[in-house]
Amino acid sequence: MTVAYRVALPVPLPTLFDYLPPAEGSAAPGSRVLVPFGRGKAVGIVVETGVESSVGANKLKRVARVMDDGPLLDAELMATLAWAADYWLGAPGEAYANALPLALREDKPLPDTRDEAWGLTPAGQSALDARSRKGGSLRLLEALAAGPLGANELHDRLPEWRDAGRRLASAGLIERVALEAMRAPAGQPPALSEEQVHAVEEISKSLGAYQPFLLDGVTGSGKTEVYLALIERVLAQGKQALLLVPEIGLAPQTVRRLRDRLGVAVEVLHSNLAEGERARAWLRARNGEARVVLGTRSAVFTPLPHAGIVIVDEEHDSAYKQQEGFRYHARDLALLRARRLGVPVLLGSATPSLESLANVDAGRYRSLHLRARPGSIRAPMVQIVDMRMQRLDHGLSPALLGAVADTIARGEQVLVFRNRRGYAPVLLCHQCGWHAECPRCEHPMTLHAGRRQLICHHCDLHARVPEACPACGATDLKPQGQGTERLEEALTARFPDVPVLRIDRETTRRRDAFEELLGQLHEGAPAILVGTQMLAKGHDLPNLTLVAIVGVDEGLHSVDFRASERLAQLVVQVAGRAGRASKPGRVLLQTHHPEHPLLRQLLAQGYGAAARELLIERRSVQLPPYHHQVLLRADSHQREFVDAFLQEAQAALAHTGLTLLGPMPAPMPLRAGRHRGQLLIESDSRAALHASLLPWQRSLASMPSARRVRWSLDVDPVDL
Ligand code: ADP
Ligand code: ZN
Ligand code: ZN
């Protein structure tokens, strides 16, 4: 037996690696070490020291160097990560790699985390007075005219300030200065409603102990105000708050709100940050300098030595699930962390996930409600528009177009929601029935008329639009169905005097383009917005009074068992965009299935009742959240390889008593030229599932058939 260090390395294998202790110094668990790996060196995290390795001393390599004086990951994070790697059947090394910003996974000294602030030097003041600089440099000098500014603020005002900053600093015109971290809070909180006060009080009672809460509040009911009030209390106790949001799109407005209100350092962590910035923000949280951390999925790994509360906004959002590598769910990980940290965790949503509602039923979460909207904001009225037997204009019914016209005439704004980009989802030959299909996915390609291209939304293959049908030569090619681009065209033709703005991934490729478009709408002039999911969330447009939802019927007939839940959430979230100010909102839902029970119930009784119904259904057919699922996926250029691997994997589970479905083709059996298959494993006991799957997972990699496929395991998959 040899006494060794057990180290996590960023490789997709379900193992840790043993090394002899370093020749010099020692490292505690959570510290980074440099170790020989393969032909080179790798940065690893010490998971355990003093382990008895079953590998002989002569075979073990030695830790080359200890990188940190103390642990970078504290005991809480280390324990959470070990648990998480087991739970999500991930490679431990990948779990640790997710927790650590990329810049900290390199063999470099830790970056300086001092608050970065810049001010003018006397020479800089003269340069400003003389206007001796131009362009970005001049703008930066002007920005600093009133006094020094922090890097965050500079970034907000002049996103491109870094280049100018370097030039001016080397010319001695600006310099790094100390900036007092605290600013006086500027924003005044509104007087909270009774429901808000109740929620804040209930949660406050749990400060200092683990307790999950579900804050179930309709859109615009003031959930964010509840978060702010709680964060204020946590800050007053000298503690930290972590607030997760599903997308960066929501971050800028929330950051502004937090900074205005709280007057403390708010760190923002998301995947669009430069790696250096991310590492510094992470370290500031670890040092306790960052008091409030706001971020997307991966921010759930931020160290919180003085944790006070963890909040997950829009907890139902599937963006919290990582879909590659280490497939964790940030909401579930947030709960795990809160438990170990001994702090309350607050999940907020207008449309809570069925998982969370089931947890409330089971007594694991406490639920709090915000039923009223503050002030005079009235909940929108939702109506179904029956499309059957209607004469449609590019998929839009007369009733819907009439409502758009009325709204515009009143000087108000309209949102037409369609969750599909492009001009039309299918290009069809009216002579022979041929349609444009992606050869690599065997799925229809979407017509993008403006770009004159057919694009596969599954593998991003681009192709020219054919002049004539490749099968029969006819020139009778017709787009079928509507995407946002086609709706934009149809509405522009109908309402030539009103701006029609399309908001989807295509029109908002640049980050500021989205903000710009929204800025225009804030001014309140009549306009028609056409958009996808991007518009469903959190954007307050006070003059938006009509929301028209088109093309939901696909969601009513999907094979995915989560489709109904998603559709209900989407409809309610989009509807919530209507009528946020004092003007009443109206929502039209256009469908061919006006009698569909889900739609009926959603409209008559709201999301809560519809969700209850869905839960009953899930229980009776033994689906999550009552049954637990793990999905083994595999793909390869050859179908036989996929089948062989999945069969071998299945055989290895035959004796376990778990329910096995498959091997079967994936819902998209071919994607980007690769054949895809899956094996679904189910059990009503999470413990039984994991007891069998942990050893099985370790054996998968060594199966001979595994070498010819790409495979992955997904615990609690959200996309089957
Ligand atoms: P949610 O997060 O539930 O969508 P917000 O907290 O963003 O709701 O609140 C919606 C709007 O109502 C915001 O403009 C907010 O400033 C305002 N608001 C929230 N609570 C109150 C209150 N108690 N009094 C007045 N206005 C409020
Ligand atoms: Zn044809
Ligand atoms: Zn494709």
UniProtKB/TrEMBL annotation:
* Textual note on the cofactor: Binds 2 zinc ions per subunit.
Occurrences of domain Helicase ATP-binding (ranges):
204-370
Residues annotated for Zn(2+) 2 binding in this entry: 438, 441, 456, 459
- Name the PROSITE patterns for this protein: HELICASE_ATP_BIND_1, HELICASE_CTER
Family classification: Belongs to the helicase family. PriA subfamily.
Listed EC numbers: 5.6.2.4
Q: Where is the Helicase C-terminal domain?
A: 464-622
Q: SMART domains recorded for this chain?
A: DEXDc, HELICc
Annotated residues for binding of Zn(2+) 1: 429, 432, 469, 472
Q: Does the keyword Hydrolase apply?
A: yes
Gene3D superfamilies listed in its UniProt record: P-loop containing nucleotide triphosphate hydrolases, PriA, 3(prime) DNA-binding domain
The UniProt subunit note reads as follows: Component of the replication restart primosome.
Q: Does the keyword Isomerase apply?
A: yes
Q: Which residues form the signal peptide?
A: none
Q: Which cofactor does it need?
A: Zn(2+)
Q: Main EC class of this protein?
A: isomerase
Q: Can you say what this protein is called? A: Replication restart protein PriA
Q: Which domain of life is it from?
A: Bacteria
| UniProt keyword annotations, A-Z | ATP-binding, DNA replication, DNA-binding, Helicase, Hydrolase, Isomerase, Metal-binding, Nucleotide-binding, Primosome, Zinc
What job does this protein perform? Initiates the restart of stalled replication forks, which reloads the replicative helicase on sites other than the origin of replication. Recognizes and binds to abandoned replication forks and remodels them to uncover a helicase loading site. Promotes assembly of the primosome at these replication forks.
Q: What does it catalyze?
A: ATP + H2O = ADP + phosphate + H(+); Couples ATP hydrolysis with the unwinding of duplex DNA by translocating in the 3'-5' direction
